[in-house]
Specification:
Layout (H helix, E strand, L loop, with lengths): L2 H4 E4 L2 E6 L9 H12 L7 E6 L18 H17 L3 E6 L3 E2 L1 H8 L2 E5 L3 E3 L10 H4 L2 H5 L1 H10 L3 E2 H7 L4 E3 L4 H13 L3 H13 L5 H20 L1
Parallel strand pairs: 2-3, 3-4, 4-6, 5-7, 6-9
Antiparallel strand pairs: 1-2, 7-8
Length: 233
């Protein structure tokens, strides 16, 4: 499968359909292709809508490492997806029509905007196989706080889309009947604005993610001057 077989571009919008197994899992090879799409998108692309056509949105990723020597490569490929979601030149919008677990929650949560059907559930099942999801814990506390991150990963309990929105795992919810219309409205709202400005916003958010308030303010001052000069040129 190539990136072209699960991604199409229309009027600056890429629709990326995650290829999932019957169990709702994505393969590592398709993780690689997803990373490639995010980091090297078509030249005309501005926004990527991430979705799937399975019953669920995504229930995780396939575990293919058979030996201890293969595990580091598997982990690196998963890290690359997280990195791509944060560093892609595209604005990402997740259309979460069904349940999301583990890796699938990460795709939704690390997208710039995520709209979830109000019937969707979100959970981290790794604890049930005796695994601490440390890749998840690298970003989850920043969104939901330490205590919620612990509870979600330590219990594996599912939460509702409404709760996921309250915690910041998704941006908003919609009924199943209204989901497509709401995603389309978000995309159109974004498309009205300059892609360069969106890239600058995302770049600044990345740069200040771990910065102190003072550091963020100093960086903001310099970026604002540069941005204003660019706007006038």
């Amino acid at each position: 499968m190539t990136t072209e077989t699960f991604a199409t571009v229309t009027d600056g919008v890429v629709r990326a359909v995650l290829p999932l197994s019957d169990d709702g899992l994505i393969s590592l090879d398709d993780c690689d292709r997803f990373t490639e799409l995010l980091m090297s998108p078509p030249e005309s692309a501005h926004i990527v809508v991430i979705e799937s056509r399975a019953q669920s949105f995504c229930l995780g990723r396939e575990r293919s490492a058979a030996t201890v020597h293969e595990l580091p490569d598997e982990v690196d490929r998963l890290v690359a997806v997280n990195h791509a979601l944060r560093n892609s030149p595209l604005v990402s919008v997740a259309r979460v029509h069904g349940d999301a677990a583990g890796f699938g929650v990460g795709v939704a949560a690390l997208s710039d905007i995520a709209v979830a059907a109000d019937t969707a559930k979100f959970f981290f099942p790794e604890v049930n196989i005796g695994l601490a999801p440390t890749l998840v814990l690298a970003w989850l506390p920043q969104l939901v706080g330490r205590r919620e991150a612990f509870r979600l990963t330590a219990t594996g309990a599912a939460i509702s889309a409404e709760r996921a929105a309250a915690l910041g795992l998704v941006s908003e919810t919609a009924t199943a009947a209204d989901l497509d219309a709401r995603v389309d409205a978000v995309v159109q709202e974004l498309r009205r604005h300059n892609p360069r400005v969106h890239r600058e916003i995302r770049d600044f958010l990345r740069a200040t993610d771990q910065a102190t308030e003072a550091q963020a303010t100093e960086l903001a001052k310099s970026r604002l001057v540069i941005g204003s000069l660019r706007r006038q040129s």
